Amino acid sequence: MEITETTTRSRSRKRNIVVFVVTNILIIGALVLLWTQLTTPVSTATHSPDDPSVVGDAPSPLIGKAAPAFDLPLVNGNGENVRLADYKGKPVIVNFWASWCDPCNAEAPVLQSSWLDLKSKGVVMIGIDGGETAGAGSKFLQKYGVTYTNIMDNVGGDTSIAYGVTRMPETFFIDRDGKVVAHWIGALDSTGLQKELAKLQVN
User: Fold this and answer.
1) Which pTM was predicted?
2) Which parts of 34-89 are beta strand (E)?
3) CB-based contact 68:96 (threshold 8 Å)
4) What mean pLDDT, rounded, does the chain reach?
5) What is the domain class of 56-199 according to CATH?
């Protein structure tokens, strides 16, 4: 009888010791995890397309797909409309902009100077002015001496929505088959433009 009681007490002590050790290990582990979280700086970096700090080549659900069609009036308001379908078989650059957008102002001279060279290579460049009056758009084009085609999105911004534009400027590169092959967020510079043109197979 005494042996049985002694054995039972011994097992009980061992069980208590095991529980004590396991419990303390769990507590220590939880404290270490909490300390790590408290002392590790929280990263605020983001690669979201609507982050103003993001500039450059960016993903888009449109890449590899047919570019959304549009049929929109010229900014100069002479009654003519421009359709994307009219340029089938040609590489097309579609640039979304607005006169109040600082990066748009920064890239306008780059696009205009590049256009003077690109048009001889058969590249079509179309600017789409969004979210303002035709008068504001016309003044912007005159200010920078822009001569490539520029049209106005409708009041609801349907074309901007169709292309998934989140901020100005954004540029889409459409190949000869009418598919989007590249998407650039923010102001384009000469280096960025050449990088994207390579995807259009334009030298």
Assistant:
1) 0.74
2) 56-57, 71-73, 81-83
3) no
4) 82
5) alpha beta
